[in-house]
Amino acid sequence: MTYALMSLPFIGAGLVVFVVGAVHAHRRGSARRYLTSWAAATAALLVLTAVFDNVMMAAGFFGYGSEQISGLRLVLMPVEDFLYPIAGALLLSGVWQLLDGQRGPRGHSDD
């Protein structure tokens, strides 16, 4: 089984929660803030993943079997390593949005 195939259920679950969160944000009038927050968090996670995976792989902490990856690499790390932070960002953004449901668009209570 490849790492990309193993990531698909997590990407799928994250995408579902993210879309539900986006619909919720749209109803509250905060869709733009939701999407830009997700984009900023995802960009930060991708940069950190690229840096630290390459450092850890160069140090010999771990490696990947060539039969489980696509063969595309960013320096030492396989591109499939980016799927995990993307899945996490999708899932956590959606959950954060849904748990913050009692607040209005500016963070004030709707009471």
Characterise the protein shown here.
The structure is a single chain. The chain has 111 residues and is mainly alpha-helical. It has a domain at 50-102. The protein has helices at 3-28, 31-58, 83-99, and strands at residues 73-74, 77-78. A two-stranded antiparallel ribbon has the order 1-2. Strand 1 and strand 2 (77-78) form a beta hairpin. The chain starts with a helix and ends in a 12-residue tail after the last helix.
Secondary-structure blueprint of this entry?
Blueprint (H helix, E strand, L loop, with lengths): L2 H26 L2 H28 L14 E2 L2 E2 L4 H17 L12
Antiparallel strand pairs: 1-2
Helix pairs in contact: 1-2, 1-3, 2-3
How would you write the strand order of the largest sheet? 1-2
Number of helices: 3
Largest sheet: 2 strands, antiparallel
* Helix fraction by DSSP (H/I, runs of at least 4): 55-70%
Structural class: mainly alpha
- Shape descriptor reads elongated
Count all strands and give the number.
2
The helix-strand sequence is HHEEH
Distance between the termini: 51 Å
Task: Round the mean pLDDT to the nearest integer and report it.
Answer: 89
* Strand content range: under 5%
Report the uncertain regions: none
Our Rg estimate from Cα atoms comes to 17 Å
Give me some keywords for this one.
4% strand, 2 strands, two-stranded antiparallel sheet, mainly alpha, 111 residues
Question: What is this entry, summarized?
Answer:
With 111 residues, this protein is mainly alpha-helical.
